[in-house]
Write a structure and sequence with these properties.
Blueprint: E1 6-10, H1 18-28, E2 31-35, H2 42-48, E3 55-58, H3 66-69, H4 73-79, E4 85-92, H5 101-118, E5 121-128, H6 131-141, E6 147-152, H7 158-166, E7 170-173, H8 181-188, E8 195-197, E9 205-206, E10 209-210, H9 216-226, H10 231-248
Parallel strand pairs: 1-2, 2-3, 4-5, 5-6, 6-7, 7-8
Antiparallel strand pairs: 9-10
Helix pairs in contact: 5-6, 9-10
Bound molecules: manganese (II) ion.
Length: 254
């Protein structure tokens, strides 16, 4: 695997220039995991990412959409054999989505159990105000030997991060997290070999525009500062981490 930048959670299909952005990631050799929020978006994302070297698409059903789209879990399941990557999935117990939390838990448990049965999946997981519930579900339904979880934009406590580490989880961190004091101290305590980078674009900003995958360089710089390391060594470490994760899920890292 060449050394370079990694954006392990972004939404390329939410930009007006989706195909051009896929080409840009390919040109830059930027390893990108583009997630989907509804399985109805899967076929197009899959088509655009199926002939690529660096861009992979993940099949998701976003917890914020479960209130309206829980029935689409059957479509999610229909496509599951077409990919090794799942997301965005998880739980959101924030004020806007708390009402659907029971329904979200049913869907997330089903996703974890199904991934465990099929094996070899990597899941990018949302856990806003639900770190404990997400970890409880992962512990109950997806042993690390059956699939790997990457906690995206994790905002749990340091002790919850330790529990997640013990469960075999990875963490994808973005520039916005690395500018938040509380998140920074949690990230500083993570084992460096479990850390990946992300933009969550277009939901984060770089200056006055939505972040693009290449802006993940900012996360590498901030992570390097936090760990008192330098950009190259940090990028190398994150590349190595992704390689280890892929091998653990029995995916060819090259
Ligand atoms: Mn996201």
């Amino acid at each position: 695997m060449s050394q370079g930048l990694i954006d392990f959670h972004c939404h390329l299909d939410l930009y007006p220039d989706h195909p051009a952005l896929v080409d840009e990631c390919e040109r830059l050799g930027l390893r990108t995991l583009t997630v989907t929020t509804t399985p109805k978006a899967w076929p197009r994302n899959h088509a655009l990412a199926s002939q690529t070297r660096y861009v992979r698409a993940a099949l998701g059903l976003h917890p914020q959409l479960v209130a309206d789209r829980a029935a689409e879990v059957s479509i999610w399941e229909l496509h599951l054999d077409e990919t090794r990557y799942v997301g965005e999935v998880g739980l959101d117990a924030g004020p806007r989505f708390f009402r659907s939390l029971d329904q979200q838990k049913l869907v997330f448990d089903h996703v974890l159990k199904t991934c465990s049965r099929r094996g070899g999946k990597i899941l990018t997981v949302h856990s806003i105000r639900a770190a404990k519930a997400v970890l409880d579900a992962v512990e109950a339904h997806l042993p690390a030997s059956r699939g790997r979880v990457v906690l995206h934009w994790f905002t749990g406590s340091t002790s919850e991060a330790r529990r997640a580490t013990d469960l075999g989880c990875y963490f994808s961190v973005n520039a916005e997290m690395l500018r938040n004091e509380r998140a920074k101290s949690m990230i500083a305590g993570l084992p460096i070999d479990r850390v990946l980078t992300e933009t969550d674009g277009p939901f984060t900003r770089t200056g006055d525009r939505p972040a693009r995958p290449a802006d993940v360089a900012t996360a590498i710089d901030l992570l390097a500062d936090l760990r008192r390391s330098n950009r190259d060594a940090t990028a190398r470490q994150v590349t190595k981490n992704l390689r280890t994760l892929l091998i653990a899920a029995d995916i060819d890292p090259d």
